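Dear colleague,

Thank you for sharing your sequence with our group. We've completed the structure prediction you requested, and as agreed, I am returning the results in plain text so they can be pasted directly into your records. Please verify that the sequence below matches your submission; if there's any discrepancy, let me know and we will rerun it promptly.
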Amino acid sequence: MTTSSQSTSEFESSVVDSDCIEDTLKNTSIVERTSQEGSKDLKDRNVILFQESVLNGGKDGNNPRFVGLVCLADGKVVIADYNNSMCCLYDSDYNLMSSCTMSNRPLNVCAIDTDEVAVTLPDNYKIQFLKIGDAIQPSGHITTRRMCMAKVALNKTELVYAGTMIDEKTYYWGTITRDGREKSCFHIPRGNITCSDVYIALNACKTRVYISCNDANTVFCVGLDGEQHYAYKVMEGPNPGKPMGIALDSEDNVYVVVYSLNSIHRLSPECQLQQVVKDMIPIYPQAICFKQSGDAFLLTSIASNICGTYKLK
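Please find the predicted structure tokens below.
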């Protein structure tokens, strides 16, 4: 594998072995965004804390750290508990229905179908699949060539996934099939910066991927072909922010959890800042997902076992 001396805003393809497809990237101008050039096309939305729910974990053990969650079509919620190496299934009233012990600490969870989710286990280089019914049960896994931190379903047989290369100084994203065949891979050289948490989301048409890179203080918007569209530098005044969870509403506006500043940045689909939400946001927020109705999102914090439901007005 080779890397070049490209700037941190540029991408290149990566070839791991003969099974990995080499991609030719388009030469495209990169539009860099900052919090100083916000879009005024849309008015601020009222974000109201509607409900706080105390989540009981699947077992007595370490204090839970809810790092990933997904809302299913029937109202159930699956949450990844990093500290206890578990995934927990809750009903629409946030009562614990079932839990499943993972082989290592989970980081991110996404829906594959109405009754199946996928969970990343970065330390095992694994994506674990779980069937959802009245209980939560393993349904197979695939092993990845790189540390996979986050993924989202492109369809029932393909995933878009992201994480760090083995040197932990390079972010990557690409597509992988349900049976573990890598279809594409692109990466971002980061110099001497050690990469950490990565979250991703897709737009409704599944043509753009939004990648929240914590230690880069940046949200990247890229095409599935590897073409980069935008890069949003997370700042509040002179203070850089550490982006974590990321989710899109029904209009493809991007909601970025800023862990270090206890806020949520709402961006346009073109990554222009629209609104900074700080009211009633817990300390150290981490994971976010929208409910199927699209008019509310769930938010967890690593500082407590409380899940907040926020309605948009």
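Summary note from our side: The CA atoms of residues 146 and 165 lie 6 Å apart.

Kind regards,
the structure core
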